[in-house]
């Protein structure tokens, strides 16, 4: 991810703030409370909205507290991701959230839900993973120190690396679709099967009893069979006669049926012979037409091959025109980009010159503000001194008037307020003294009030300085706006240069592709071949359709011959059947008389058979009961087998659950060596090779290796460096597992506990890692390191406007 710009409106203390994020090491400077960390909060809110843990406090607190009624907080973030530019804009009123996501100028989502889903799919990270990957704060440096116990530390890092997903697959006994849910269900099935097995000994006892009853009933069935056999013997004397007549009757019926079928077949053969004669005539005509078409389409395949070759050349010619058009268009676009780049001129020089003027005007403004503060303080102190004198004299005046009135009321007999003796002759002198003092005080008060009125308005010199201050602020604001515009031009210049290079590469690819295209297309020949094929194609299709006409003619002649022979055979069969029916001499009346005699014998047989059936039913009932018992015995053995299978599957699921646990433990055990390896690379760069490696023991305590020797005790500053290396390593591991390039790093107040030397080392490390971290943002209130940044963004808080602004 690469941040491009951020626009805030009525967001927290940012009334109207516009920030452009350059590439490289950038410092975001400002005093505490100037709104630096709010920038990070706004970035996260723009990407993840009102999800829990993204913004501080309630959503109402997002809106600047001095904003007019019904105002909304707005955050609009533009960023690059996977070589594409996206802009997400969110706004929050007191009751409604709105969001929009654009890719370039195309809107791809315009509702809060759709934007959240699109960004989650695009970034492939939750907001917790996003913070853990890209952000590092001072309070997060010693993130392991705040966690007690090796197990909790290991679990914390595993959760950051999303290893808890293995636990989710194992699941819980009440979560369907997980291993432990299946384990619980298999345990329940095993217990149910074990409880439903029954008593095998009781089943076998009942089986013996039913076998005994079956033997007794079988004896009764033998008696019934004997009686039935006697009745059968009585009927058997008549049965042979009936069988003989049945046979002769069946033969008579069969021959009559065959005669009818043969006559019907003869009629059908006559119709088929007539149809085949007509078909033979039609096929003979088709064969003659097929031979004519063969001569007409003899060169069709040769013409088709020539047409196919010309068609390939035609397609190549069309593609050539398309590629040439695309190449010409790219050349025009490159010319336009080069013209735009030429119009921009030397943007870097303009940027530097404008920055120099801004610095000069800022220095002049600081000097004027200091002078205004000094004069304002002197003016206010003079006013305060005069007001204090007037107040003090007024209090004395009131006190003297009270004393004078008290003495006047007491008269000559009253007591002196000082010595408490009667005034008598001193009364007039005392009253005179009071009057003189009152006159003196009145004079002082009037003189000081006149002096206070004279300085009620600010001095002219102070007003002139304030006017100069306002002019400088306005000029500085215009300069800063110009700086933003020049920075935007610089971004455009870089983008246009990349586009120009890409289009030149495309032109080279198109030129190579054009060179590979075949040539030689003859439009006149192509048109002639097309017309010839168009004329011959219907004849060719008709020729192919009639290709089997000779074969079909031969088949029709053979079928006609076969049908004629079959016609002769059926006629002979009809004559033979008629003669055989006459020779049979069958009488239907003799057949009916014999049937009546057998019916009487059959009635006697039926009575014997009923007795037999009763005996058979008794045997069948006992056999059914016996079969049911045998079935229960078989079901017992089947359930016993199912129980053993369920028991084995339960053991398999237990082993699978154990294997998942061991796999999670294996992954967890790999955290420490991988984390130590990544952190060691950062530590080696940060300490100039003094410490070339670090280890993490089983309790997640960090041990630094100094020349191969273990150094468990290090200074506080070194400890912060080690913790910073660990935090960078974890961010790198998380980002690698998310499948995203680790191009952005944001450090929030991480220099607080480091001395100047350590801070310089950290900054050197970050400069050395610019290839790994394309964009590094450092938020700090330490002004002394501003020269170490490639770029700076300064934030200040205006107490009069009660809002933050970019200085």
TrEMBL record:
Domain (AAA+ ATPase) ranges: 22-804
Claim: Coiled coil is one of the keywords in the record: yes
Keyword Coiled coil: yes
Signal sequence, start to end: none
Coiled coil: 200-234, 259-410, 574-618
Alphabetic keyword roster: Coiled coil
Transmembrane regions: none
Family in the record: Belongs to the SMC family. SbcC subfamily.
Subunit structure: Heterodimer of SbcC and SbcD.
Name of the molecule in the record: Nuclease SbcCD subunit C
Organism the protein comes from: Tumidithrix elongata BACA0141
